Amino acid sequence: MLSHRLADFIGQIQYDMLPAATVHMARMAFLDWLGSAAAGGLQAPAKKIQAVVKQQGGSPQATLLATGEKISCLNAALANGIASHIMELDDVHRAAIIHAGAAVIPAALAVAEMIRASGRQLLEAIVVGYEVAIRVGEAVTPSHYYFWHTTGTCGTFGAAAAAGKLLGLNKEQLVWALGNAGTQAAGLWEFLVDGAMSKHLHPGKAAQNGVLAALLAREGFTGAMRILEGERGFCRATAPRFDLSKITANLGKQPYKVEENSFKIHASCRHTHPAVDVTLELVARHGLKPADVATIIVRTYRTALDITANHQPATVYAAKFSLPFCVALALQTGRCGLEDFTPEKLSDPVIHDLMSRVSLVMDEELDALHPARWPAIVEIETHSGQVYQGRTDFPRGDPENPVTAEELVTKFHALAAGPWGEQRSRVLAQAVLDLENVVDVADLFQVLSPNHYGRVWHSSCGITQHER
Amino acid sequence: MLSHRLADFIGQIQYDMLPAATVHMARMAFLDWLGSAAAGGLQAPAKKIQAVVKQQGGSPQATLLATGEKISCLNAALANGIASHIMELDDVHRAAIIHAGAAVIPAALAVAEMIRASGRQLLEAIVVGYEVAIRVGEAVTPSHYYFWHTTGTCGTFGAAAAAGKLLGLNKEQLVWALGNAGTQAAGLWEFLVDGAMSKHLHPGKAAQNGVLAALLAREGFTGAMRILEGERGFCRATAPRFDLSKITANLGKQPYKVEENSFKIHASCRHTHPAVDVTLELVARHGLKPADVATIIVRTYRTALDITANHQPATVYAAKFSLPFCVALALQTGRCGLEDFTPEKLSDPVIHDLMSRVSLVMDEELDALHPARWPAIVEIETHSGQVYQGRTDFPRGDPENPVTAEELVTKFHALAAGPWGEQRSRVLAQAVLDLENVVDVADLFQVLSPNHYGRVWHSSCGITQHER
After folding, report:
1. Distance (Å, rounded) from C-alpha B311 to C-alpha A411?
2. Would the CB atoms of A237 and B45 count as touching at under 8 Å?
3. Could you give the CA distance from residue B180 to residue A200 in angstroms, rounded to a whole number?
4. Among B56, B197, B227, whose Cβ lies nearest the Cβ of A58?
5. Exposed / middle / buried, residue B315 (Cβ in 10 Å: 0-12, 13-18, 19+)
6. Which residues share a beta bridge with B93?
7. What are phi and psi of B296, to 5 degrees?
8. B56 → closest Cβ in A48, A73, A197
9. I need a labelling partner for A363 at 20 to 30 A (CA). Which of A61, A352, A460, B118 fits?
10. What confidence tens digit (pLDDT) does each residue in A278-321 have?
11. Is the CB of B232 less than 8 angstroms away from the CB of A75?
12. Cα–Cα distance between A179 and A208 in angstroms, integer?
């Protein structure tokens, strides 16, 4: 019985048994998610759900990250989950095609705050949540993915696992929670035709539904025992082909799935990242200046060109999906971050000149490697006739080509400093980097409270930590 | 575009254009639902969700029917929806195989209370909610029904329609609400293997998710425009075969779908109802007494016998699924109501003697008529050699064989008088029978408020009504 196996795993995971690499990745996943939630909280879809949950009211159990107010645990999971999936900068698991963080972490954080859990408990919850969401995703991908937005559907199992872990559910209760997660799991791709906001709703609902399943299980509300493999269960209902063995293969053994996570450090479409990475490296190594550049040839796989071969992006949003723009931006500024996608850059004559020098080539050899690898070769020829070339097979942030903690912290500040201010962002980043020593997660997020700012900066930061 | 067609219909329906028969059925559906919610509110699954929503807290927007407390609109829709589907006495639409009331009415009531709608507005919302839920159900039944619990899935569309109508959404917002209803729709039959409480969770979630979709749409949160017919929409994702024409055929024309509703007046499995109906009629017409009866032959369709051919029910719950028990009970007491299923009756020697005289026969001719009809022939022979025979093709409560308002009121009191007391139940029944003249639905439900009882009975009832 798969739910029993997962429940055993969820019950057994303890902070003390986690390798340093797992703890590091869980911490980074949390920081990365938090940045996306901070910036997303200012966007229109997030504002709309904030209005709805404020009307509903609730006990002050968890933080609405966009405002620092305390709202009910279920509402916080929903609103923070929606916010975290708007910027398109959240982490992704390649094989499961799931943004586990957007569903798992808002659930884990809301419950952790409610029960005043420690940073270690939150880390445990993130590890088990990612494990369950990703494993269910791997079992049903790719056939499930045609109709169903995996982040919403499989994410619900991960959210329930994380919430159930924090609530200390016993094995039977965890099985019920997974059963009622699966029977609430939803999220259809149909929104894509209209670019509708449902995309953001999905992980928020996954988080909220997962928490509800766990809270109900704690009260003894029963659920299906074989929700994954049952004759009328989740996999058969939503995936023409599935592989249940992926749910339990090496379950409980290292490395944990959270370590397979990919982070996005550039603010553009993932398919632009390999070429941007190589361009940035060539610029840094050879000190290239825009005025030096005669031609730029980018060779890459077909899907990248299908989506990003746009030499004339009309909007800032379209620029994020324009490979020529992103490469030109990287050449001119040495960056490709959130703050670099501006109307000014979109109309910058230097960028336009560079874009016109970019040629895109579909490379059969590279294409054969996709999607296991996402390769690109960039060749830059200068006016003086020098040719610089580089290649990558994995965009930076993939587990095969990891980013540093410093890069993720930089990304976090780029996302969070605007909405939260630099000082609060620094406090939070510092605490998250040391999450295993945070005694009380709820206390940590007091820093976002509307009337807390003064107190923090006139006392000595306000976050209780273990002595080190 | 189907959502646009449905949105037009939802927007156009006005109380003044509804025929008396439609208003009557909507009122009866509300009364019937209310009784199920009252009795269900005392059951274990309802108590568990009550515990969860009380922890979450919220603005006092709508009544938690089990306690009379005011809780948030979204929580009320959830908790009341769960309660209303526990007694297995709620109404059903045969062709769509959906308990529309359990999903639509808790959504409609919660929003109506929140906005202080009138009885007429509530009736409009019930009519459009039933129409949408049943039409979507008809479009995907039966292939959808293998994996998906229609009450949970299609019910979400009906809940969104009812909530959207009450909130006065414009056409574009209604389309978004339907889009985000469909993308949240869920509920798998897998719980059946374990008899898990998920069954009750489904209509509660349908109600809550439908209300959320409507509340979000009011704020401008967009959803898929073609959620029903789209290439990656609800029908293709959840039904191997479907018929979209059923969603719009004669849409807006009378009779409305709420009039096709079937009510249950006996407290047993629906498959026992035809034989119970005939037995009650023979008892009433011929004054039969248990001591007179020598043999009872029941001829019916195969499915009825597959499920109810149990001569030795071991529990009161099993007795509700025992055709011999239900027929014996009808013979002895002239009733088959909620209060008749007791441990005393289960061990009553007269009932046991009568059960031993019941023979069950699968009748090929009757079976050929099922499921369009649910027929039974009952033949009772007395010790003096007289034979009395009767037949029905539709259990009472089907639209072809309607029950009276008095019978539904009797059923309501049987369900509600225990949990709410006789006086409150009478006040509510009286008001619902005159729902079109209730000025403020929220005011009506003040009668359930924990500290309201005294006030009602020392003043003159407290419910504001139109002058008549």
Report:
1. 71
2. no
3. 11
4. B56
5. exposed
6. B98
7. -130, 120
8. A73
9. A352
10. 999 999 999 999 999 999 999 999 989 988 999 999 988 889 98
11. no
12. 15
CA distance A202 to chain B (A): 8
**What are B432's two structure tokens?**
């619902």
- CA–CA separation, A353 and B131 (whole Å): 59
- Are the C-beta atoms of residues A15 and A126 closer than 8 Å to each other? no
Residue A298 distance to chain B (closest CA, Å): 34
Domains annotated on chain B, with CATH: 2-260 (1.10.4100.10), 270-392 (3.30.1330.120)
Structure tokens belonging to residue A380: 């830059």
Residue with tokens 């908790």: B79
- Do B157 and B193 form a contact (C-beta atoms < 8 A)? no
Residue to mutate among A191, A208, A225, A229, with most B CBs inside 10 A, is A191
Which residue numbers in chain A have pLDDT < 50?
454-468
Q: Are A184 and B156 in contact (CB under 8 A)?
A: no
| CA distances from residue B345 to B205, B280, B281, B295, B380 in whole angstroms, order as listed | 36, 17, 21, 20, 21
Omega of the bond leading into A142 within 30 degrees of 0 (cis) = yes
CA nearest to B177 within chain A:
A198
pLDDT tens-digit readout, B418-437: 999 999 999 999 999 999 99
The torsion region of residue B396 among left (phi > 0), alpha (psi -120 to 50) and beta comes to beta
Strand partners, A360: A298
β-pairing, B293-300 vs B358-362, is parallel
Residues B155/B98, Cβ–Cβ less than 8 Å = yes
pLDDT of B94 over the 90 cut:
no
Q: Are B165 and B128 in contact (CB under 8 A)?
A: yes
Query: A100: part of which helix (H) or strand (E)?
Result: helix A100-115
pLDDT digits (tens, 9 = 90+) for B13-27: 999 999 999 999 999
Half-sphere exposure of residue A279: CA atoms within 13 angstroms, side-chain side? 30
Beta bridge partners of A392: A376
In this prediction, residue B452 carries a pLDDT of 67
Interface with A, mutate which of B4, B56, B200 (most A CBs under 10 A)? B56
Both tokens of A173, joined, read 């209760």
Q: Are B158 and B103 in contact (CB under 8 A)?
A: yes
First to last CA, chain B: 43
Order of all β-strands in the sheet with A387-392: A358-362, A293-300, A376-382, A387-392
Tokens 């441990």 sit on residue: B343
Q: Please identify which residue in the block is written with the tokens 């965009």.
A: A395
Pairing state between β A293-300 and A358-362: parallel
Counting one residue from chain A and one from chain B, the pairs whose CB atoms sit within 8 A come to 205
What ipTM score was computed for the predicted complex, to two decimals?
Answer: 0.92
Residue A385 to residue A248: CA distance in whole angstroms: 56
Partners of B380 in the β-ladder: B296, B388
Calculate ∠ Cα B214-B217-B221, nearest 5°. 140
Beta-ladder partners of A333 = none
**Nearest neighbour of A188 by CB, restricted to B44, B74, B183:** B183
Measured distance CA(B184)–CA(B182) in Å, rounded: 5
Distances (CA, A) of A101 to A25, A114, A264, B93: 12, 19, 13, 41
CA distance B430 to B241: 44
Q: Is the CB of A183 less than 8 angstroms away from the CB of B193?
A: no
> Comparing C-alpha atoms, which of B323, B295, B328 is closest to residue B309?
B323
Residue B276 and residue B293: Cα distance in Å, rounded?
16
Sheet holding B387-392, edge to edge: B358-362, B293-300, B376-382, B387-392
Q: Which of B52, B192, B233 sits opposite A190 (nearest CB)?
A: B233
